[in-house]
Amino acid sequence: MFLIFPLLIFMVLFSCSKHSAVPLCANQLDSLVCSYVLNIDKDYDSFIKLQQDLDSISKALLSDSFCTKPAREKHETIKNILFTERSIKFTPAVEERGAILPQHAWSSREGSCLSVSLLYLMLSERLACFPLHGVMLPGHIFVRYADTDTVFNIEPNREGYSHPDSYYALKYDIQISSFYNLRNCTLNEIEAVLAYNIGYYKLQQGKYEDAEILFKKAIKNAPDYPSALGNLAIALSHTGKRDSAVAILKELVKDNPNDEKGRLNLELMMKQAGEKE
């Protein structure tokens, strides 16, 4: 979904700190998510609780022959934990912080594609025999199980339902040559999605300079990320950097000629600039 702000917004995903309340993160993804808690709130207690719960779940699974099960049976076990025992439900409220960070989805039992995908990925990092990858789409992220013998997709918005790649390619009009080409994400790209979504949250709050910093961080981790580039232009336009914003949109439209929203944003921004002249 694309909103007016007043331009069409492109929607779609460190060491923590030496503060004594900040959890120590042994896992890469835990450390990554922890570092972004500072950008929304300082609710480390809920993050520590999530870590403890996931550690306990993983320990119980590994002691119960989890790794000897077939891939889809392992996923049924994880699905049951997340969507039956924990009763996590999908929420489309992407402008709310609970839709971004996994600890809020865990405590509130409501989450978006991003926060639920992060829960899956954080469990996967604790369960080496349950290899998962994030997959980026325009305004969406899902996860994919992939080992040497078995590959299947996991849709976070439908309680782990498995759609084929062809479903996503058709629904999101994916071109193989495009940025969104249904590949497995790197950890840097997962950080890009997280930074982008928090940046979008800041943009909704009118915190344009914060949003600018986060969109730039997303682009640093995924240089051709269309949604981050488009929203960076919008953030820049609100902080008096209209020339830079227009330049970004021109390049974005050049590289993505079918991006109708990018073209409309560019036309609107140039019109606004012309009116001031």
Topology as H/E string?
HHHEHEHEEEHHHHHH
Shape: globular
Number of separate domains: 2
Q: Catalogue the unreliable spans.
A: 1-23
Number of strands: 5
Rounded to an integer, what's the Rg over CA atoms? 19 Å
Mind summarizing the main beta sheet? 3 strands, antiparallel
Strand order of the largest sheet: 3-4-5
Question: Would you give an account of this structure?
Answer:
- This protein folds into 2 domains: about 30-170, no CATH class; about 190-275, Serine Threonine Protein Phosphatase 5, Tetratricopeptide repeat, CATH 1.25.40.
- The protein has 11 helices and 5 strands.
- It has helices at about 30-35, 45-60, 70-85, 100-110, 115-125, 165-170, 185-205, 210-220, 225-240, 240-255, 260-275, and strands at about 90, 110, 130-135, 140-145, 150-155.
- The strands form 2 sheets. The protein has a 3-stranded antiparallel β-sheet.
- Strand 4 and strand 5 (about 150-155) form a beta hairpin.
- Helix 4 packs across helix 5.
- The longest helix is centred in the first third of the chain and has 19 residues, at about 45-60.
- Residues about 1-25 have low confidence and may be disordered.
